Amino acid sequence: MLSPTKIVCIGLNYRLHALEQGKPIPEEPVIFLKALSAFHGESSPIVLPEESSEVHHEAELVVVMGKRAKKVNAAEALDYVAGFTCGNDVTARDLQRKDKRYTRAKGFDTFAPVLPRFVPLSEWIPGDQAVICRVNGEERQRGLVSDMIFSVGECIEYISSIMTLEPGDLIFTGTPSGVGPIHDQDVVEVEVEGIGVLRNPVQRSS
After folding, report:
1. Strand, coil or helix: what is 40?
2. Over its length of 206 residues, how does the chain's per-residue pLDDT go in tens digits?
3. What does the alpha-carbon distance between residue 38 and residue 46 come to, in Å, rounded to a whole number?
4. Any long-range contacts for 68-73 (C-beta under 8 Å, 24+ apart)?
5. What's the start-to-end Cα distance of the chain, in Å?
6. DSSP state letters, 113-180
7. What DSSP designation does 205 have?
8. What is the pTM (predicted TM-score) of this model?
9. Can you name the residues that pair with 181 across neighbouring β-strands?
10. Cα→Cα distances 95→106, 107, 174, 205, Å
11. Is residue 200 within 8 Å of 43, Cβ to Cβ?
12. From the CB of residue 167, how many other CB atoms can be counted at a distance below 10 Å?
């Protein structure tokens, strides 16, 4: 069972996604935090808030930390990892454009669904695995872990130079291109090859 003390996310970590958002390719990792109240499991609904009319899916590889990490270097970073799972960095895109910040757009309750099971590092090492999103069975996103601008090790090095990562903490590592809207009654699937499939229905806030 996952029990993070924080959820750290890497933005714009795939070149084509940065381009589709009209953003420059970052020279260093772009990080932000998601509220723990956004943390959500599989099968439970992603709830669309009344404040937004344009909520997007973002399929991502998620790192599960295994040991406390502070100022670790990229070459040793995987030694601090327990394993990997998959998640959906759900985003209210209209609010992101309006605020020009990430906190509100990505912080609503249920906006960080994560597959609660993870594959240990001994069984899965980041490489050319596919990161995929499907909505109602239609493929929307497909990228490779190896397409990331900043590797898992580089992300951990950067984050741990700022804040101490604790066992159980989650790192969302960025999304491939192809993000798009989700609507009431949709079913969203996030798959990371070799890890599993996270499925969540979508419902409008009542």
Report:
1. strand
2. 789 999 999 999 999 898 888 889 999 999 999 999 999 999 999 999 999 999 999 999 999 999 999 999 999 999 999 999 999 999 999 999 999 889 999 999 999 999 999 999 999 999 999 999 999 999 999 999 999 999 999 999 999 999 999 999 999 999 999 999 999 999 999 999 999 999 999 999 87
3. 10
4. 68/164, 68/165, 68/166, 68/167, 69/156, 69/160, 69/164, 69/165, 70/160, 70/164, 70/165, 71/160, 71/161, 72/156, 72/157, 72/160, 73/157
5. 29
6. EB-S--EETTT--SSS-EEEEEETTEEEEEEEGGGBSS-HHHHHHHHHTTS-B-TT-EEE----S--E
7. -
8. 0.97
9. 56
10. 9, 11, 19, 16
11. yes
12. 15
- Characterize the bridge pairing of strands 39-40 and 30-34: unpaired
What tokens appear for 38 in the block? Answer: 């956004």
**Phi–psi pair at 32, nearest 5 degrees:** -150, 165
Per the structure block, which two tokens stand in for 147? 């397409």
Rg (CA), the chain: 15
Q: Read off the tokens for 149.
A: 């601008």
Read off the tokens for 126: 């980041």
